[in-house]
C-alpha cells in the first residue's frame, strides 16, 4: 500500500527529472556534486538527507545533513515521511519526501545522494530519476582516500570497504544504473557526469529563461 501511495505521489509531482547519485564513500561523489552545483547555479538542488550520526568538523545542519535523533527519524519513517532509509555503522540515514519536493518546487533538478539500499527503494516508486554510480578506480585507492580523511575507526573503515566492494559488484547488474562513472581523473569523471545530464540541464535552463 505504501509503495502504491509513493507511486501516485511522484506521478503527480511535476518538474525536472531528478538524479540519483550513488557510490562508495570516498569515490568522489561530493566533489563532483559540488562542481556541478557551482557550474550550473540555478539548475540543480541538493536533496539534504537526514541522519542520526553526529556532525563531522565543518559540517552544517541543514546543509550537509539534517541531524536528528533516532527517535525522531524512526517516528518519521513509520509515518511514511521518507522515500528511503538505511542503517550503516549504527547510524540511520534517509531521504524525506519533503526534501525532494522542496527542490522540485523551485523547478530544479533534485539530486539524491543515496546508497544502494536507497537506490532499490527509489526504484519501487515512479520518481523516474537518472541513476548514476560513481566508482573509485580501485579498492586500494579507495582505502587510501578513506584513511587520509582520518575520520574513521579501523572497524568502521573495514565496514565501508566491504560495503564498497559489494556495491561495485551490484552496480554491474543491468537495469540498476543508467551510467557507471569511474572517478580516476576528476576532470574526466566530471565531463562524463555533465554529458549524462546535459539534456535535463538544457531543459531547466530553457524553462528558467522563458519564465
UniProtKB/TrEMBL annotation:
It catalyses: GMP + ATP = GDP + ADP. It comes from Salmo salar. Its EC number is 2.7.4.8. This is Guanylate kinase. The keyword Iron does not apply. GO terms for molecular function: ATP binding; GMP kinase activity. It is found in: Cytoplasm, Cytosol; Photoreceptor inner segment. NCBIfam families: guanyl_kin (TIGR03263). The keyword Nucleotide-binding applies. It is an enzyme of class 2 (transferase). SUPFAM superfamilies: P-loop containing nucleoside triphosphate hydrolases (SSF52540). The gene is LOC106569342.
Amino acid at each position: 500500500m505504501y509503495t502504491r501511495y509513493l507511486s501516485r505521489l511522484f506521478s503527480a509531482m511535476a518538474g525536472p527529472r531528478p538524479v540519483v547519485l550513488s557510490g562508495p564513500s570516498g569515490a568522489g561523489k561530493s566533489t563532483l556534486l559540488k562542481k556541478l552545483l557551482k557550474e550550473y547555479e540555478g539548475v540543480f538542488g541538493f536533496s539534504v538527507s537526514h541522519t542520526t550520526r553526529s556532525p563531522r568538523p565543518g559540517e552544517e545542519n541543514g546543509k550537509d545533513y539534517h541531524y536528528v535523533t533516532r527517535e525522531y527519524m524512526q517516528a518519521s519513517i513509520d509515518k511514511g515521511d521518507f522515500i528511503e532509509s538505511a542503517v550503516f555503522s549504527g547510524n540511520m540515514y534517509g531521504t524525506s519526501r519533503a526534501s525532494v519536493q522542496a527542490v522540485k518546487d523551485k523547478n530544479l533538478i533534485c539530486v539524491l545522494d543515496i546508497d544502494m539500499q536507497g537506490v532499490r527503494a527509489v526504484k519501487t516508486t515512479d520518481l523516474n530519476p537518472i541513476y548514476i554510480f560513481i566508482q573509485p578506480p580501485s579498492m586500494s585507492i579507495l582505502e587510501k582516500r578513506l584513511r587520509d580523511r582520518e575520520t574513521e575507526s579501523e572497524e568502521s573503515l573495514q565496514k565501508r570497504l566491504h560495503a564498497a566492494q559489494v556495491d561495485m559488484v551490484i552496480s554491474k547488474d543491468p537495469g540498476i544504473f543508467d551510467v557507471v562513472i569511474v572517478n580516476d581523473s576528476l576532470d574526466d569523471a566530471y565531463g562524463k557526469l555533465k554529458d549524462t545530464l546535459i539534456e535535463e540541464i538544457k531543459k531547466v535552463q530553457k524553462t528558467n529563461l522563458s519564465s
